[in-house]
């Protein structure tokens, strides 16, 4: 199933609200613009971007003499797609590369590591998974299961080990094995906990230092935020805090199959100017898709 179909099954609430507006909208009047802006805000896009997009569409309608709501549907999808930032390169396939997955508890980090490991392994990459979530024993076991499914080795240490030193060991082993892609799962944490965010910054720094010394040459390290699309506007706060503490390189949105809205992807992309690298559209190993801004916006608008 393509991204468009997968997303069309989710994103229901935003699409229905927009559908109603476009279907019953008829000729556009002042009420249409007010309702459009409200609908975008209600879809989790945030006030700023909703206002900007509505204003731009209003200008376009005036310039091109577009009079009916129906004529504006495609233009809305195109305008929303412009909000997204294109990734400069694909960290998972332009290797060597080490990627740390960060995010709050339950965002889908471990699942995403498993999905990416499987896809990269299938594409012929030598992948190593590292478990820096030493907080929960179950997390280490869960990652083991994903490693087995993906056919990729998992480097782990006992529960309670220092996560930064585990990352050092992961890079040691990856270096010894000549791995070209290292995926490190970190423990979920609240973006509001200063101590846990400091711990994570140390994990990133230690990983970077060790990655510089790889035998085959320095390995670039990237930090990717895994964000549950269903967390609504709180997702924007998470992204801001993680970015402030760690300097993010990109975002992976999960659970887009389940969320009825999805506008948070636009809010994050517009505020942080970060690319959405992939999206999770289910719990199975194959339920990961490349992100395509046009498909996403067409699914959102119901084109
Ligand atoms: N529907 C759906 N469920 C997902 C997706 N990604 C992850 N999940 C589910 O979300 C739940 C949490 O996923 P995990 O991968 O354990 O999340 P985590 O971020 O590693 O969690 P912590 O280790 O607690 O920080 C699991 O039940 C996953 O199956 C997705 O794209 N769609």
Task: Please summarize what this structure is.
By secondary structure, the chain is α/β, with parallel strands linked by helices.
Describe the structure in your own words.
By secondary structure, this protein is α/β, with parallel strands linked by helices. Helix content is 53%, strand content 14%. It is built from 12 helices and 8 strands. The protein has helices at residues 3-9, 12-25, 30-45, 47-64, 69-81, 109-122, 137-150, 163-177, 194-212, 234-246, 264-272, 293-301, and strands at residues 97-102, 127-132, 154-155, 181-186, 221-228, 250-254, 276-280, 288-290. Strands 3-2-4-1-5-6-7-8 form an 8-stranded mixed sheet, with helices on both faces. Helix 11 links the parallel strand 6 and strand 7 (276-280). Helix 2 runs antiparallel to helix 5 (69-81). Bound molecules: guanosine-5'-triphosphate. Residues 103, 105-111, 133, 139, 188, 254-255, 257-258, 280-283, 287 line the site of guanosine-5'-triphosphate (GTP). Guanosine-5'-triphosphate (GTP) is lined by residues 103, 105-111, 133, 139, 188, 254-255, 257-258, 280-283, 287.
The low-confidence runs, each spanning 5 or more residues with pLDDT under 50, are none
Shape: elongated
The hetero compounds bound to this protein are: guanosine-5'-triphosphate
The separation of the N and C termini measures 18 Å
In what order do the strands lie side by side in the largest sheet?
3-2-4-1-5-6-7-8
Give the overall pLDDT as a whole number.
89
């Amino acid at each position: 199933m393509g991204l468009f179909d997968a997303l069309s099954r989710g994103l229901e609430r935003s699409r229905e609200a927009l559908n109603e507006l476009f279907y019953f909208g008829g000729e556009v009047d002042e009420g249409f613009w007010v309702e459009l802006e409200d609908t975008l805000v209600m879809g989790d896009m945030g006030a700023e971007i909703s206002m900007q997009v509505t204003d731009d569409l209003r200008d376009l309608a005036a310039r091109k003499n577009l009079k009916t709501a129906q004529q504006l549907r495609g233009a809305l999808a195109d305008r929303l797609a412009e909000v997204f930032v294109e990734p400069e390169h694909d960290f998972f396939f332009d290797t060597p590369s080490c990627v740390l997955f960060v995010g709050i508890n339950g965002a889908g980090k471990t699942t995403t590591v498993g999905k990416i490991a499987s896809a990269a392994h299938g594409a012929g990459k030598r992948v190593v998974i590292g478990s820096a979530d030493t907080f929960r024993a179950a997390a280490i076991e869960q990652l083991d299961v994903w490693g087995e499914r993906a056919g990729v080795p998992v480097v782990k240490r006992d529960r309670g080990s220092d996560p930064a030193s585990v990352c050092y060991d992961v890079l040691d082993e990856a270096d010894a094995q000549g791995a070209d892609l290292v995926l490190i799962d970190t423990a979920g944490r609240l973006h509001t906990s200063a101590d846990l965010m400091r711990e994570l910054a140390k994990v990133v720094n230690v990983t970077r230092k060790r990655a510089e010394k790889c035998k085959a040459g320095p390995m670039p390290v990237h930090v990717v935020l895994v964000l549950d699309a269903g967390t609504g506007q709180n997702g924007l706060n998470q992204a801001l805090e993680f970015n402030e503490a760690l300097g993010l390189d990109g975002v992976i949105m999960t659970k887009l199959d389940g969320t009825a809205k999805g506008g948070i992807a636009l809010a994050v992309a517009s505020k942080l100017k970060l690319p959405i690298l992939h999206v999770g559209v289910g719990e199975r190993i194959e339920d990961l898709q490349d992100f395509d801004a046009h498909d996403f916006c067409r699914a959102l608008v119901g084109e």
